[in-house]
């Protein structure tokens, strides 16, 4: 009888408890993932905007220094990184 009680008092998690935790974590991840991806895309847009702003300001500086008009040319690229034709 003592041996039986000693085994029963061992601590640990049951399979059901672990499955419930994994399901809860999965639901939270499914809710948070789109939000995170939106923030990531927003960050990329802000970085691109900062690059455009920097290019325009540099063109303005060069135009003022040279006393001539300067142009900013935007080159779009494909997914492979090659310039579009």
Description of the molecule:
The protein has two helices and no strands. The protein is mainly α and 85 residues long. The protein is rod-shaped and about 85 Å long.
Write the layout of secondary structure elements.
Elements: H1 2-8, H2 15-66
Number of strands: 0
Proportion of residues in extended strands: under 5%
Low-confidence stretches: none
Order of helices and strands: HH
Write down the overall mean pLDDT. Answer: 83
| Count of separate DSSP helical elements | 2
**How would a crystallographer describe the biggest sheet?**
none
Distance N to C terminus: 84 Å
Helix-strand category: mainly alpha
| Helix content class | 55-70%
Note the overall shape.
rod-shaped
What is the domain total for the residues? 1
Global Rg: 29 Å
């Amino acid at each position: 009888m003592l041996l039986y009680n000693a085994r029963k008092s061992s601590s640990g998690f049951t399979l059901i408890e672990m499955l419930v935790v994994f399901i809860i974590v999965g639901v939270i991840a499914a809710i948070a993932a789109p939000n995170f991806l939106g923030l990531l895309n927003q960050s990329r847009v802000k970085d691109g905007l900062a690059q455009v702003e920097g290019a325009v300001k540099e063109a303005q500086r060069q135009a003022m220094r040279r006393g001539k008009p300067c142009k900013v040319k935007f080159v779009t690229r494909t997914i492979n990184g090659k310039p579009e034709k």
